[in-house]
Amino acid sequence: MVSAGPITDQFYWVFANNELERYIVLSVEELGSSHSLRWEMMNEGFHVLWDSSRSRKQAIRYMELYYPDYKKFESVPVPVTFREACDFVNKHHRHHPAPQGMKFALGLSNGRELIGVLIAGRPVSRLRDNRKTIEVTRLCVHSAYKNACSKLYASAARIAKEMGYQMLITYTLEEEDGGSLRGVGFQFIGVTPGGSWHSKSRSRQDRHPMGPKRAWSLNLSSSQEE
C-alpha cells in the first residue's frame, strides 16, 4: 500500500503516456469541473492510471513503485524557425493568426513533437516601440500541458534580457486570468480599449479579436532572472 502522507480533501489523477514512458499528476481542481483537460490529455496520448490518490506525493510514490521506468513529464526546449512557429500558430491558436515578423521564436516538445511556441517581436503599438521594449506577440501551447506557458514566458524573459531589452510586454483577452504571466513575474498594467491597428500610414488586415485586452509587463532591468 502506498502511504498518502498528509490527507486532504483533494484527489489527484495520474496520467501516463506509454509511448513516451512519462506521467503527469493533476489535481481535480487542475482538471476543472468539466474535466475538459482530461480529454485534452487523452488526445495527447495520455491515459488514466489512477484517479483517487489523496496527495501528489502519494501519486508520485505510486509511479516509483509500480512503474519505475516511467519518468515525470517535462517539456523539452527545442529550436524552431520562424516558419515552423508560424505554422504551429496558424494551425492551433484559438483566435490569432501568426505575426508578420519576429525577433526570436521558442519551441517546446513533448519528446516526440512540438507542443508549444512563443514568438517575440517589436511592440505592435508604436507608442511602446522605443527600442528597449519587446513584445510576446504570440504564445500557443496545447492545453494538455499545464506548465508549458510559464516555461516559455520565463525563457523569453531570460533571452530578451540577454539581448539588452529592458521591458517585456504582452496582451491577453479580458476573459484570460493571466496566471501563467503572474507566475513568471509579469504585472497587470491595465486594460487597453482594443480596436483596429489599421491606419492610412500603416495598413493592417484585422484577423483577430478587436475587443479590450489586458496589458502585462515585466521589468527586465530589475528581474532576477539569470
From TrEMBL:
Residues 194-226 are annotated as: Disordered. It comes from the Bacteria. Signal peptide: none annotated. This is XF1762 family protein.
